[in-house]
């Protein structure tokens, strides 16, 4: 049975599909639309992404795409482990600016479902981390936005003090300087 747990911001959901172990290893249905639909998680994913981060302490994000190119994401790890984070950036939300996170591991097969209206980032905890994630909207570079990973107002408790980030991510704005394109409803 797939384990489905809503986090403290309940729109963000931790999903752990079962693994069927035998003497060869294991088998797992890593994505099953019917299982998510049965839990009221109605998403139609249109693109699969993969990233490799070689150095522990790499942080990718905090990123989002603005509507009409907003992306929900279903994130999992196939090698290593990450601390995965979602920040609520829906104007008017009771949890605006708040974050939730979960540790996702290749060993455990945990997945995080992040809906529209959230900025997403992860920090790698091991070398050579491969992250796979489904998105329900195609890539739109022109629609990309973000928040700096160590925004003191968001105050994410990252497992690292110094991070490896891209040049693009190093100059992302603070939440207080962002006019979020998302509205809570
Ligand atoms: C996201 C994306 C990127 N690209 C190209 C654009 C660049 O030439 C190259 C690296 O892109 P970027 O530096 O934005 O990759 P990440 O820093 O891993 O960005 C991702 O990191 C955080 C965790 C996210 O949640 C988003 O999915 C995404 O923003 O891949 C594509 O061709 N298609 C895509 O969907």
UniProtKB/TrEMBL annotation:
**Which pathway is this protein engaged in?**
Carbohydrate biosynthesis; dTDP-L-rhamnose biosynthesis
Question: What role does it play?
Answer: Catalyzes the epimerization of the C3' and C5'positions of dTDP-6-deoxy-D-xylo-4-hexulose, forming dTDP-6-deoxy-L-lyxo-4-hexulose.
The UniProt record lists the EC number as: 5.1.3.13
Q: Name one GO cellular component term.
A: cytosol
**Family the UniProt entry places it in:** Belongs to the dTDP-4-dehydrorhamnose 3,5-epimerase family.
Keywords tagged on the record:
Isomerase
Looking at the UniProt record, the site noted as Participates in a stacking interaction with the thymidine ring of dTDP-4-oxo-6-deoxyglucose sits at 139
UniProt enzyme class? isomerase
Q: Where is the active site?
A: 63 (proton acceptor), 133 (proton donor)
- Per the UniProt record, the source organism is Azorhizobium oxalatiphilum
- Source domain of life is Bacteria
Q: Which GO terms describe its molecular function?
A: dTDP-4-dehydrorhamnose 3,5-epimerase activity
A biological process term (GO) from this entry = dTDP-rhamnose biosynthetic process
What reaction does this catalyse? dTDP-4-dehydro-6-deoxy-alpha-D-glucose = dTDP-4-dehydro-beta-L-rhamnose
Name of the featured protein:
dTDP-4-dehydrorhamnose 3,5-epimerase
